[in-house]
Amino acid sequence: MLDNYEKEPLNEATVRKSDANDKAGRPLVELRHVDKHFGKLHVLKDINLSVNQGEVLVVVGPSGSGKSTMCRTINRLETIDSGEILINGQRLPQEGKGLAMLRAEVGMVFQQFNLFANKSIIENVMLAPVKVRHMDKKKAYDLAMDLLARVGVESQANKMPSQLSGGQQQRVAIARALAMQPKVMLFDEPTSALDPEMVNEVLEVMTRLAHEGMTMICVTHEMGFARRVANSVVFMADGKILEQGTPDEFFDHPKTDRAKDFLSKILTH
Ligand SMILES: Nc1ncnc2c1ncn2[C@@H]1O[C@H](COP(=O)(O)OP(=O)(O)OP(=O)(O)O)[C@@H](O)[C@H]1O
Ligand SMILES: [Mg+2]
């Protein structure tokens, strides 16, 4: 893991990252022997995965391999059949207040931005802190404006989502997830619905977040991003994790035929 930090200048955030790892001594997100079926379809097969604090994990794999399902189990948008998922050492509760609290610690950004169409940009970002965290409106407004500035769309605060470009909407979706001050951010193909010229502005926001020390799990086929930012790459196929390694290990020396085949297809596009 430390190898990757050497690619970045050693700034405060990277120092904090390694401190945090030492102190925590246990993964922030852990999946142990997770299995899941959709009816007869076995979509997650004995998934074992750990993500340390400050680590960026990129998940790649062919369509239908279970990447989205795995992400969705982490904040329990999907149930699992067996195994366990721990956040900060705590098992994901089945329901109730405990689940709501743990879910608030996991921010999620989807391919489709899912902003509330009938609310302004600022209202979209303020909503969860006010409703879920009972933050007072002034404080939530200030927090939302800060976050919108961080993702570079503060000038759009009073517009409606439909008035923004896809890239801007996705950056608002990131700000909205950050407003809950999550411990980990999950990104499920956040740039794949965007026009090509808007991909970079979203990847830049994600890169900055990573450098600030955010723990991130990203399903993405943006290989440049994965190489530059990921500490670790996981390759999934048919519901299984077939490979895990550093970006250099995975992209330059894939071990399995499935991974080699997958990489030859995406890299030639
Ligand atoms: N709600 C559901 N009910 C039944 N089957 C589902 C459901 N959601 C996903 N599946 C199936 O589970 C398998 C894994 O789907 P998943 O969406 O996790 O794959 P993925 O790796 O994210 O694919 P993609 O790259 O296309 O997004 C697929 O065969 C899919 O058709
Ligand atoms: Mg998917």
Automatic annotation (TrEMBL):
**What CDD domains does the annotation carry?**
ABC_HisP_GlnQ
Keywords for this protein: Amino-acid transport, ATP-binding, Cell membrane, Hydrolase, Membrane, Nucleotide-binding, Transport
Top enzyme class: translocase
Where would I find the ABC transporter domain in this sequence? 29-263
Q: What is the official name of this protein in its record?
A: ABC-type polar-amino-acid transporter
The protein's matches in SMART domains, at most eight in alphabetical order, are given as: AAA
Q: What is its EC number?
A: 7.4.2.1
Query: Where in this protein does the record put region Disordered?
Result: 1-21
Give the membrane topology, semicolon-separated if more than one.
Peripheral membrane protein
* Protein family according to the UniProt entry: Belongs to the ABC transporter superfamily.
- What are the boundaries of the signal sequence? none
Q: Which GO terms describe its cellular component?
A: plasma membrane
Q: GO molecular function terms here?
A: ATP binding; ATP hydrolysis activity; ATPase-coupled polar amino acid-transporter activity
InterPro entries with a match to the protein in the record: AAA+_ATPase (IPR003593), ABC_ATPase_HisP-typ (IPR030679), ABC_transporter-like_ATP-bd (IPR003439), ABC_transporter-like_CS (IPR017871), MetN_ABC_transporter-like (IPR050086), P-loop_NTPase (IPR027417)
Cell compartment(s), UniProt = Cell membrane
**Catalytic reaction equation(s):** a polar amino acid(out) + ATP + H2O = a polar amino acid(in) + ADP + phosphate + H(+)
Q: Which organism is it from?
A: Bifidobacterium bombi DSM 19703
